[in-house]
From TrEMBL:
Signal peptide: none
Binding site for pyridoxal 5'-phosphate: 248, 282-285, 384
Organism: Asaia siamensis
Enzyme class at the top of the EC tree: lyase
Name listed for the protein in its UniProt record: Diaminopimelate decarboxylase
Length: 433
C-alpha cells in the first residue's frame, strides 16, 4: 500500500474497499461498468491551488494556462476555469473546446508547431490572448492573415533554448533537432523582423523544453537563457513584456523524486523574476495526472510455465490507455477489494485483450492473487489517458465519471458500438450485387 501512502486522494477502507476522494470506486464500477475513467474534481482543485500558492509565496503573479492536451473533458475544463485557469491549446478543435467550457478567448494561448491558416484565422477572429509562433514561416503567414482580416495578432516567439530536459526522448521538446520552436541563433533577428511586420503585435517570448521533468536544473538552465535573450532584445531597443515559461513539471508515477511546485517557482523567480515581465506557465500533467484513475475488470487468468509470471487479462487495453505501450510508462495498479489490500503478492503480467503484443500494462508486477471479476484501478491516469484513447479493434470509448464532495456523476456514457460505424458509407457499386 505504499502507492496509496503518497496519494492523498486515495484510501483503502476495510469495508468499502478503495475510495477516491471518499467515493467507493467499486460502486462506480458496479453501476457504470468497466473500463471506466474516474476524474476527481477535488484533486484538480487542490493541485491547482497548491501550484498557484508556490508562486505567490515567491512574490510572483504567474498566469496559469492549463494544457488541454493532458485532459480535455469539458467537466475538467470547467473545474479549472472555476479555479482561475486559462488554457493552452494546440489545435482549432482545442480552441473551440476551451471556449465551449467557458474559458475566455483572452485567457487562451495558442501553441503548436503546425497551425494551419484556418486555425490561425480562427484564433484571430476569436481574439485569443496570445499566439506562440514557432517559425519564421508561421510568423509571415500570420502577418498576412492578420492584415487580410484587419486585425493585430498578439505574438510571442517560442524559442528553442537547446536544453536537454533529461526526460523521455519522445517527450523532450527543447533540444537542438527537436521540431519545436525557433532556433536559438535565429531568435533575435526574427524578433526584430516581427516588430516590423504589419498585423503583428510582438509581446515577448515563450519556451517549453519537455514533459515529465524531474529536476529543477533543466528549467533553471532554460529560463536563464531566456532571461539573457530578454536583456539582449531590450538592449537593441525592442520591447519584451511577456515570457511564457511552458510546462513540464513531473509527477510521481512509481518511486520518482518529483520536484514540488516550489522548485519550478524558484527556478522562474531566480532567473526571470526581476525583469518586470508578465509571466505564465502551461501546466497539464502536474494538475491532471493524479486526478484520474482507470477502472478495469479481470476477464481471465492465464497460467504460464517455467517460472514465467502468469497473465492477468483485463478488459481495459492499449486503445484506452496508450502510455504503457507508447512510452513504456509505469502506472500503479491497486485492486479495489479490501480483502486483497494486504494479501500476499506475486509477480503477474497484466495485459489487455487487444490483438497486439504491446498491449501490456505491467510486466512481472507484484500483485495479490486476483480473481476473474475483480476490479483493478490503474493510478495516475488523469493526464494523457482518456484524451489519447482510440477505438482500435472496434472497441468503444470507455465511460467517464467525475467525483466531488462524496458524489459522482457520469459525464460521458460508454460509446455505443453502433456509433463506431455510424458515419461509414459504402460506395454504391459495392451495393449493386
Amino acid at each position: 500500500m505504499n502507492l496509496l501512502a503518497s496519494r492523498p486522494s486515495l484510501h483503502m477502507d476495510g469495508q468499502d474497499g478503495l475510495l477516491f476522494e471518499g467515493v467507493p470506486l467499486q460502486t462506480i464500477a458496479n453501476q457504470v461498468g468497466t473500463p471506466c475513467w474516474v476524474t476527481g474534481a477535488g484533486t484538480l482543485r487542490r493541485r491547482t491551488r497548491n501550484l498557484r500558492k508556490a508562486f505567490t509565496e515567491r512574490g510572483l503573479d504567474v498566469a496559469l494556462h492549463y494544457a488541454l492536451k493532458a485532459n480535455d473533458h469539458l467537466a475538467t475544463l470547467s473545474v479549472l476555469r472555476q479555479e482561475g485557469c486559462g488554457a493552452d491549446v494546440v489545435s482549432g478543435g482545442e480552441l473551440k473546446r476551451a471556449c465551449q467550457a467557458g474559458i475566455a478567448p483572452s485567457a487562451i494561448v495558442f501553441s503548436g508547431v503546425g497551425k494551419t491558416d484556418s486555425e490561425l484565422t480562427l484564433a484571430l477572429r476569436e481574439g485569443v490572448g496570445q499566439i506562440n509562433v514557432e517559425s519564421a514561416e508561421e510568423l509571415r503567414r500570420l502577418s498576412r492573415l492578420a492584415r487580410e482580416l484587419g486585425l493585430n495578432a498578439p505574438v510571442a516567439l517560442r524559442v528553442n533554448p537547446h536544453i536537454d530536459a533529461e526526460t523521455h526522448d519522445k517527450i523532450s521538446t527543447g533540444r537542438l533537432g527537436d521540431k519545436f520552436g525557433i532556433d536559438w541563433a535565429d531568435a533575435i533577428a526574427l524578433y526584430r523582423e516581427a516588430s516590423t511586420l504589419p498585423g503583428i503585435n510582438i509581446r515577448g517570448l515563450a519556451t517549453h523544453i519537455g514533459s515529465q521533468i524531474l529536476s529543477p536544473a533543466p528549467f533553471k538552465a532554460a529560463y536563464a537563457r531566456i532571461a539573457e535573450l530578454v536583456i539582449d532584445l531590450r538592449a537593441q531597443g525592442l520591447t519584451v513584456s511577456v515570457v511564457d515559461c511552458g510546462g513540464g513539471l513531473g509527477v510521481r508515477y512509481r518511486d520518482e523524486l518529483a520536484p514540488p511546485p516550489a522548485a519550478l517557482a524558484g527556478a522562474i523567480a531566480e532567473t526571470l523574476g526581476g525583469l518586470d515581465l508578465k509571466l505564465a506557465i502551461e501546466p497539464g500533467r502536474w494538475i491532471a495526472a493524479p486526478a484520474g484513475v482507470l477502472l478495469t475488470s479481470v476477464i481471465d487468468l492465464k497460467a504460464q510455465r517455467d517460472g514465467v509470471s502468469d497473465f492477468v487479462i483485463v478488459d481495459a487495453a492499449m486503445n484506452d490507455l496508450a502510455r504503457p505501450s507508447l512510452y513504456g510508462a509505469w502506472h500503479g495498479i491497486v485492486p479495489l477489494a479490501p480483502d486483497l489490500a494486504y494479501a500476499e503478492t506475486g509477480p503477474q503480467t497484466v495485459v489487455g485483450p487487444v490483438c497486439e503484443s504491446s498491449d501490456v500494462f505491467a510486466k512481472d508486477r507484484l500483485l495479490p492473487a486476483v480473481r476473474p471479476g475483480d476490479t483493478l484501478a490503474l493510478l495516475d491516469t488523469g493526464a494523457y489517458g482518456a484524451v489519447m484513447s482510440s477505438t482500435y479493434n472496434s472497441r468503444p470509448l470507455a465511460a467517464q465519471v467525475m467525483i466531488e464532495n462524496g458524489q459522482w456523476k457520469l459525464v460521458r456514457p460508454r460509446q455505443r458500438v453502433e456509433a463506431l460505424w455510424a458515419d461509414d458509407s459504402v460506395p454504391e457499386w459495392l451495393d449493386s450485387e
